[in-house]
Design brief:
Blueprint lengths: L4 E10 L3 E4 H4 L7 H8 L3 E4 L5 H15 L9 E5 L10 H8 L6 E5 L5 H14 L6 E8 L9 H4 L4 E11 L4 E9 L7 E2 L11 H5 L6 E2 L1 H22 L9 E4 L4 H11 L10 H4 L6 H9 L8 E8 L3 E8 L3
Parallel strand pairs: 4-5, 4-6, 11-12
Antiparallel strand pairs: 1-7, 2-3, 6-7, 8-13, 9-10, 12-13
Helix pairs in contact: 3-4, 8-9
């Protein structure tokens, strides 16, 4: 019996129907299509109008189970990466498991902002690699519209809503997750944060009046940290695994800003045709960006492809995963 690795054996996304264009945003805040595209690369984003974070996740998971012809009762563990759970508790994963009939699974959320899918995928992989579980679902989902101030140009033009889910199963052919590097630095709290709703600023009339329940961002500082750290960790995982730019088939970068994506690809020596990009359609869906990229590009992936997933998120959190595509 060969070494067991955790392989992605299925991927599925869900996107809300409502499309908010840059033109529509320009009627709500002082901006324009040209201003947004030149700074971010975003043309439009999806907004959830008929449900909540758990609904988006459940729709992605239900479609994934149908696609793989799986009984929901076969799923043993569900991990949901999100910063916009339906409630402070119970967890979004708990609600998703119930909505999808995954009654045999235990579940929990991981909060690591835009790096949440990386944190969740690497965590889930441990349960597969030890041989304890054979079917684990990881979801990246965020309903950023629920914590967005549509009068704040520095944030509202960037974010959208969406969900992506993957199935992890054991592999003995050497496919699946090969390595990961993850980091965090809590000193970044002031630069990208939702100030209220926790124990520092419990909800009150005052916190609502001051709009402290919305995302606050120091764009220049976040950009500086993101460009450096996302590029550095992507290069580091290549070096650690003796990968040249020729060896890497795909970069799956967090879809926060086209300039950050370009800087990461350049640092890795990758041409544009090896970089997954859908930011122009969906904006930044936080924990949803990486699985949504895999879903969008699924038909172009080949078994054995060397793929690097890379992200940077608020707090700060960042990291990279190296995997071999399994199908």
């Amino acid at each position: 019996m060969g070494k067991i690795t955790a392989a992605i054996t299925g991927v599925q996304g869900y996107l809300p129907e409502y499309i908010m264009t840059n033109e529509e945003l320009s009627t709500m805040v002082d901006t324009s299509d040209e201003w947004i595209q030149s700074r971010t690369g975003i043309k439009e984003r999806r907004i959830m109008k008929d449900g909540f974070t758990s609904d988006m996740a459940a729709r992605a998971v239900t479609a994934l189970l149908e696609k793989k012809n799986l009984d929901p009762m076969d799923i043993e563990l569900v991990i949901v990466a999100t910063v916009t759970a339906d409630y402070p508790f119970p967890s979004c994963a708990n609600l998703v498991s119930n909505k999808c009939g995954m009654k045999n699974a235990w579940s929990f959320d991981i909060n690591a902002a835009c790096s949440g899918f990386l944190y969740s995928l690497s965590t889930a992989a441990q349960f597969i690699e030890t041989g304890r579980y054979k079917k684990v679902i990881v979801v990246g989902v965020d309903m950023m519209s629920s914590i967005m101030d549509y009068e704040d140009r520095s944030t509202c033009v960037i974010f959208g809503d969406g969900a992506g889910a993957v199935l992890l199963e054991p592999n003995e052919e050497g496919m699946g997750i090969q390595d990961f590097i993850l980091h965090s630095d809590g000193s970044g709290v002031d630069y990208l944060v939702q100030p209220a709703g926790g124990s520092v600023n419990p909800a009150s009339h005052d916190t609502v009046d001051q709009k402290l329940h919305f995302v606050k961002q120091e764009g220049k500082q976040v950009f500086k940290f993101a460009v450096t750290n996302m590029a550095d960790v992507s290069a580091a995982i290549m070096e650690k695994n003796n990968l040249s730019s020729d060896d890497v088939d795909w970069l799956v970068p967090h879809q926060a800003n086209l300039r950050i994506i370009d800087a990461t690809a350049n640092r890795m020596g990758l041409p544009p045709e090896k970089v997954m990009i859908n930011i122009q359609k969906y904006g930044n869906t936080t924990a949803g960006t990486l699985p949504l990229c895999l879903w969008d590009y699924e038909s172009q992936l080949k078994k054995g492809d060397n793929i690097i997933l890379s992200a940077f998120g608020g707090g700060f959190t960042w990291g990279a995963i190296y995997l071999k595509w399994a199908y």
